[in-house]
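User: I'm new to structure prediction. If I give you an amino acid sequence, what do you actually give back? Let's try with this one:
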Amino acid sequence: MDKSNQGSNGELQTVDLDLEWVYLLLSAKKAGIKAEEIRRFFNEKALKAI
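Assistant: Good question. You get back a string of structure tokens that encode the predicted 3D arrangement of the chain. For your 50 residues, that looks like this:
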């Protein structure tokens, strides 16, 4: 996947990103990780990055 989230016309391309998140959440669910745990993890990482 291209690292850019903009198409050639400058519009935000979110379909690929959305599919990646769906895959991530489904994989985590199969591994027994709840979506809330993932959300909390990313919130903590985002706060540390700021």
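You can read the tokens as a compact description of the fold. Here is one thing that stands out. Residues 39 and 45 are 10 Å apart (CA to CA).
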